[in-house]
Design a protein that fits this description.
By secondary structure, the chain is an alpha/beta fold. It is built from nine helices and seven strands; from the N terminus they run βαβαβαβααβαβαβαα.
Amino acid sequence: MSRYQSILITGASSGVGAALARLWAAPGRRLGLVARRAERLEDMATELRAQGAEVVCYGVDVCDEAAMAQAVRGFVEDARGLVLVVANAGISRSDKLPDGLAGPGAEVIAVNVQGVMHTLLPAIPAMIQAGGGHLVTIGSVAGFRGLPGKGAYCASKAAVKTLMDAYRPILKPHGILVSTICPGWFHSELTENNPYPMPFIMDTGRAARKIARAIEGGRKTYIFPWQMHIATWLMRVVPDFMMPNVYARRGKAGGQATGGRA
């Protein structure tokens, strides 16, 4: 059970975003669900309203700055009680370096970095005025070192963690908490077609519960599972030749895009 009465989640139509919404749905709680797939959001809303929650759906692409600003500000300004904003929407693509195409990597940066900024920053003025709130982004253990074939994805997650580290001391005096959640692999649309091993992969519901507990505890940075916490330290110190070549394992010169947008 969350102490927050009003919660906004992006990427809420599937995966851990949907799992968090189900976990937090309860009588007296207001949930804002953001995703491009509006029809899935409405199905989610019906389910969550049956659990007693008040639900508002926003069929918005996180890359649309103006639409996101309108959705986030509208939700936060109308919220009753404490507000939690979770920037969860994200995608993964292979770099496709031999093809010389910037598009796949640029899309990853746009969704995973600009999308986070479009989600979190519009909420800040209202949170400052209200005297507090909580900004959360879903990062990744991949943000601690570049993996061959996943450069744009790793860079996007590193950028998000760096942004949050920079925002935290500025927003703390205003009573605004800032958290970065860095999971390993869990079952989702982003991982279901990955052709390489995913050690310690976790059930989505279990991952959501761990994320929720970390948020409730006000964790600044939370890495899980514990095996991946150790791995993030190792990733910083092992030489390049020992790093897994995700790109090579894909089996095709250009690789394939993986994952989808919620």
